[in-house]
Amino acid sequence: MTKVEKKFIVATVVSTSMDKALTVDILRFKKNKTYGKRFKVNNRIKAECKDASIVVGDIVRIVACRPGSKDIHYKVIGRAEK
After folding, report:
1. For a designed S-S bond to 47, which of 20, 43, 74, 78 qualifies (C-beta 3.0 to 4.6 A apart)?
2. How far apart are CA 50 and CA 32, in angstroms?
3. Pairing between β-strand 72-79 and β-strand 21-31 as defined by DSSP bridges
4. Which CATH number is 8-79's, of 2.40.50.140, 2.60.40.1940, 3.40.50.720, 3.10.20.30?
5. What is the pTM of this model?
6. Antiparallel, parallel or unpaired: β 72-79 and 59-64
7. How deeply is 64 buried, as exposed, middle or buried, from its count of CB atoms within 10 A (0-12, 13-18, 19+)?
8. Measured between alpha carbons, how far is 11 from 31 in angstroms, rounded to an integer?
9. Cα separation of 33 and 24, whole Å?
């Protein structure tokens, strides 16, 4: 059996105030069905992070994992190249 590659999400770090966790902001664009205009949609989620060198404003990659707590369902893989 081959191992399935997990999809990763690129997000911006918003808060690092928690111990071993980050709050990240995922930006995506949706399209209005009637008029076709595109608009921004932001989702803020919490991700587990053991790397202490990540600061607010960094662009990181996250991947879904099993729940670590009530709110944390993602894990930080590392920084994304700009």
Report:
1. 74
2. 39
3. unpaired
4. 2.40.50.140
5. 0.81
6. antiparallel
7. middle
8. 20
9. 28
pLDDT digits (tens, 9 = 90+) for 28-52: 999 999 999 999 999 999 999 998 8
Task: Look up residue 80 and give its two tokens.
Answer: 């994304």
Domain coordinates in residue numbering, the chain = 8-79
CB atoms within 10 A of CB 34: 5
User: Which tokens sit at 40?
Assistant: 């921004």
Which tokens belong to 12? Answer: 């911006």
> The tokens of 7 are what?
């999809």
